[in-house]
Amino acid sequence: MRSRLLITLLLLLFGLPFGLLGLLAVGEHWRFPAALPPAYSLDALRSLLAADNDLLLGLGRSLLLAGTVALLATAGGFGLARAITRSRWATRWEAASYLPYALPPVLLAVLIQPFVIRLHLSGSVGGVLLGLLLVALPFATLLLRSFWSAQITEYEHLARTLGCTPRQAMRRVLLPLAGPLLRTTLVQTFLLSWFDFGLTNVLSVGKVHTLTVQVFAYVGEANAQLAAVASLLLLLPPAVLLLLNKSALLRKP
Amino acid sequence: MSELLTVAHLSKQFGPHPVLRDISFSLNQGEVLAVLGRSGCGKTTLLKTLAGLEAPDEGTLLLQGRDLGPVPPNERQMVYIYQEPLLFPHLTVFENVAFGLRIRNVAKAEIDRQVRELLDELDLREHARKAPNQLSGGQRQRVSFGRALIIRPRLLLLDEPFGNLDAQTRADMQQLFLRVSRQHQITSLFVTHDSREALTVGTRFGYLDQGQLTSFASVAGFVQDARTAIRSELAFWESIRHALPSGPPTA
Hints:
CATH superfamily of the largest domain in chain A: MetI-like
Structural class of chain A: mainly alpha
Order of helices and strands of chain A: HEEHHHHHHHHHHH
Largest interface: A-B, 17 and 27 residues
CATH architecture of chain B: 3-Layer(aba) Sandwich
Mean pLDDT of chain A: 88
Shape of chain A: globular
Order of helices and strands of chain B: EEEHEEEHHHEHEHEEHH
Strand order of the largest sheet of chain A: 1-2
Low-confidence stretches of chain A: none
Radius of gyration of chain B: 20 Å
Number of domains of chain B: 1
CATH architecture of the largest domain in chain A: Orthogonal Bundle
Helix content of chain B: 25-40%
Mean pLDDT of chain B: 89
Structural class of chain B: alpha/beta
Distance between the termini of chain A: 29 Å
CATH superfamily of chain B: P-loop containing nucleotide triphosphate hydrolases
Largest sheet of chain A: 2 strands, antiparallel
Number of strands of chain A: 2
Number of helices of chain B: 8
Strand order of the largest sheet of chain B: 6-7-8-3-9-10
CATH class of the largest domain in chain A: Mainly Alpha
CATH class of chain B: Alpha Beta
CATH topology of chain B: Rossmann fold
Largest sheet of chain B: 6 strands, mixed
Oligomer: heterodimer
Strand content of chain A: under 5%
CATH topology of the largest domain in chain A: MetI-like fold
């Protein structure tokens, strides 16, 4: 009974912000001290269907950026983690992987901005992608380091003696073994770049409008309805990802 | 019997530490060379060097007269069997056994036939659709054997394969290994730290100590060598036998 009450309370606690966002998205002229909006309209949601809608463009841009970062960081992290494990200076390289986290992402963006400008990537999606990769790649590397254990080397050796070329051993043995951890890393790096605001804002110099940046812009303009619609869109892909990867993320050790 | 493997003056060191020192031996078709040695004597490095997973610093390896130096592990047809069965957890028992044939692109019907035959032989047919984590330790090691045998290896390299099994299962697996070895005329290098196991499975014997291999011409030589500690073990069991009261046991 107590656990059921606790679960209900927790569900309420997690669900309340979503309910509030929903109300903000469809409510009109909602002013303090009214507990609920006096009128409801689906206009803001309907406007999403318009071809030139900024929010949908922002959603597409965010999906492209976060998806690319997740793929590149996970693939790169998998290879880098393996290289670090085989290196004579594995602990040093691992320590170096923590360096991007010694600075807040905004400060990191400020520090790398001169290089991004020299590369003629300032204010472009490419520049933001580079910045996000600088954070996501070490994160993925650290996460995937745990995969390359001595036992994995034994699996690889065994596969080689059974007749696998290095590529076959990777495709038929190592990748399936790493599957759950790779999915977790994909989700985590996707979320890392999906929700980033500071680094994206600095490196894009206001030109790359991702969905997160748009939410902040609408909040700044006190446009509660559009901010709520943008926030709902912002929550959609992570919710889908979490649902799809429930088994991998909640797997027992 | 024709000579299958010739190892001449094999040496290997990691940094300043020599692990294998001037190892030479040869192995005929169908022989099982049981190598006894304690932990850290270089057994694993010897097997990995033969498999092509480690490169020797010096020495030559010839398989039926062919220099194995430039041959990668996947082309040596020498399967390494670990102490842990290392079954692929994403594959069923059937697919684990079929693994070596699938990567060689053998026809599906032929794979089905060969795997079923081998599963029958290893008494694993009823477990074909199971995942590795649904099997006991002995069953897993049998699957591991099946996975190695299906590709008809020229040489099996066994690294204390029954070391993690309980005494009864271990004895059963030793008998299974003997039966399958004789039936398929398999040539093996079987390393173990258990002298009884070495005597059970071996047709020839060696002792590896600090990277140096001593080969024995006969079982008697192996038993008599003080380093194998077989005589002291025999003496121990003799003393137990003498200490026991004679006559039938009472309930």
